[in-house]
Amino acid sequence: MAGSLGATLKSVVISVRVTPPTIHPPGTLQLYSVIMPARDEEGSLPETLRDLYATFAAAGIPHEIVVVDDGSKDSTWAVLQELRAGEIPTLAPLQNPGPHGFGRAIIYGLNHSRGDAVVIMMADASDSPKDAVKYWRLLNDEGYECAFGSRFIKGGQVIDYPRMKLFVNRCANLFIKMLFVIPLNDTTNAFKAYRRTVIDGCRPLLSPHFNLTVEIPLKAIVRGYSWKVTPISWQNRKHGEAKLKLKEMGSRYFFICAYLWLEKYFSRGDYRR
Predict the structure, then answer these.
(1) How many of the other CB atoms lie within 10 Å of CB of 12?
(2) What average pLDDT score do residues 73-100 get?
(3) Would you state the pLDDT for residue 25?
(4) Distance CA 56, CA 42 (A)
C-alpha cells in the first residue's frame, strides 16, 4: 500500500510540473480593481489613497479603488466619503454589513468590484503603489494570470519590520514553500494581483480572517494558473494599530494549508482549471 501511495504522489507531482502555463495575449485587460479592507484606518487612508490614485493616474491604468469599511468605530467612513467627493473620483467605498473579518471584507470587495483584474492592498500604506503597477504589467502586458511579490528576494525590501513578526513570517513561509514544493517564499503576504478568472476559479473562498492571504495564492497555484514573482517593498504603518494577531491565526493558517495540501495531492486534479 505504501508503494501505491508513493506512486500516486509521484504521478500527481509530475502532472503538476509538466502542465504548460496559460499566458494570455497582451493588452486584453480593461479595469484594475484595488480591493482594500479597512477597519479603523482614519489616520492611514488619506495618504494611502492619494498616493495610490496619483501613481495609477500617472501610469495610465484604468482602475477603481474599492475600500471596504469593515465595521470601523472611528471616522473611516467619513474620511472615505470626503476623499471620494473631493479628490479621488475612482474611489468606490463600501461598508461590509457583517459579519466582519479581514477575509470577509476582501471577499465582500471582490463580490462588489467590476475589474477583470484585481489587486489586494493594505490600507496602512505598507504596500507600494509602484509595485501594484508592476503587477498590472505582469497581468496585462505579459499575460500572466497571477502576479505575486516577494519582499525577500533580490530587489525586495522591508522597512521597520517588527523582529518577532519577521521571524514568525520567515518560518511560516519556509514551511509553506517546502510543503507545497513551490519557488515562492512570501505566500502569506496579502499584496498580490489576479485576473478575475482566477478569483472565480478559486471559489468558494473559505477563509474569514487573515488566512485568506494564503488560501487564494495556494489555490491558484494548485489549480494550475500561471504566475510570476517580482520583488516588492514593504514598510511598517505610521498610523493606527496592526490588525493581525499571530496567536489567533496559527491554527487557521494551518487549517487552510492542510486543506489545500490535500487538494494538491489527493483530489486527482478534480479542481484544476
Answers:
(1) 16
(2) 97
(3) 92
(4) 22
pLDDT of residue 2: 46
CATH number of 29-266: 3.90.550.10
The candidate with the shortest Cα–Cα distance to 230, out of 166, 107, 124, 141, is 141
Q: To the nearest 10°, the Cα dihedral for 115, 121, 123, 128?
A: -120
Quote the mean pLDDT of the chain.
Answer: 91
- How many whole angstroms separate alpha carbon 105 and alpha carbon 95? 9
- CA dist 137 and 234 (Å) reads 19
For the chain, what percent of residues have pLDDT higher than 90? 84
pLDDT tens digits, one per residue of 13-62? 444 444 568 999 999 999 999 999 999 999 999 999 999 999 999 999 99
Q: Give the start-end residues of each E strand in the chain.
A: 32-38, 63-69, 94-95, 117-120, 146-150, 157-159, 192-195, 227-231, 233-235
Residue of 95, 269, 67, 261 whose CA lies nearest to 179? 261
| pLDDT value of residue 143 | 98
Around Cβ 60, how many Cβ atoms within 10 Å? 8
Residue 148 contacts residue 184 (beta carbons within 8 Å) = yes
Let me know: does 72 contact 41? Beta carbons within 8 Å. Answer: yes
Whether the CB-CB separation of 10 and 210 falls below 8 Å is answered with no
- Tell me the Cα Rg of the chain: 19
**Whole-angstrom distance, CA of residue 270 vs CA of residue 273:** 9
Q: Which three cell numbers mark 233? A: 517593498
C-alpha cell at 158: 522591508
Q: What is the pTM of this model?
A: 0.89
